[in-house]
Structures are given as C-alpha cells and as structure tokens.
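mind reviewing both lines:
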Amino acid sequence: MTMNLKQATEQAKQFLGPTIAAAIQEGDVNLIAERAAVADRSGNAPADPGWDPTYDPFLLGAELADLLGLRAAGTDGITSVTSEGTTIQTRAADYFAVAKALRQKASTSSGTGVGILKINTGARKGGITAGEGYLTWDGDFPELNEWRSPWLP
C-alpha cells in the first residue's frame, strides 16, 4: 500500500490512534518523510529522476512513533500520584513497540523491522593475520591468543 504524503499521513495517524496522533507536532511528518519514501508505481526509487513522491503509511507511522518515543524518553513524567490514601499509577506509552509493529507491516519489511541489503563482496582471502594478541582466520571472529598484556598489573 503506497500513496502520496498527505494520504500516507492521514492513514498513519489512523494506525497510531487519536491519542498518539494528537502528540504529532506540525513539521514532524516533513522531518521524517524521507525515511518512509518508497519506489513509485513505475519502479522509480526516491533518488531516481522522475520519481513520483510515494510513501508507505506503515513506515511513516513507524517513523512518527519512533520520533515520539525519542521525545518521551528524554523527558521525565509523573507516573504515580498518591492523595488521601489512594495511589494512581500510569505507565508511559511504548512508542517503540508501536513503531516495531507498524514497521513489520510495511511493504519493504523483512519481518524484522530491519531492511536487508545483499552485497556481493567477492572472494575472501584466506590466511592468518596476527596482531595485538589476536589471531584471525579469513576475517571471522577473533580468537584470543593467550599472552599477558603489558598494560595489566
């Protein structure tokens, strides 16, 4: 499902619900719109000439939720109030969980919320390199070469 920015914004706000959508400030959509841009119906990528601005509303909603989550994480809020023997507790909205759920529904999703790029790096050279107390074979995880560090007492 892809659409222009205005349509994608309205759809994303519906996905987020009225409470979260009310927290979206003017300019937020334009701030993160680039991250929700996808190929248009002709297959043109956002960076291609002739791209018709096209956005995934699930990605746009996820990016908006991430933005709100970052803002919420940076502020302190009252989560508990006690008055006359009665305590009322609240919990902060988990914007990041909302973002993850929406990202998994996006047209470009790999199911993990992370896009996967396959890169052919060509043949890897075999051999052993040694340095700083580590041995490495063919670029795999380092294996500790047991020797005493001169920096430790």
Remarks:
- The longest strand covers residues 80-83.
- The chain has four helices and five strands.
- The first helix runs from residue 5 to 22.
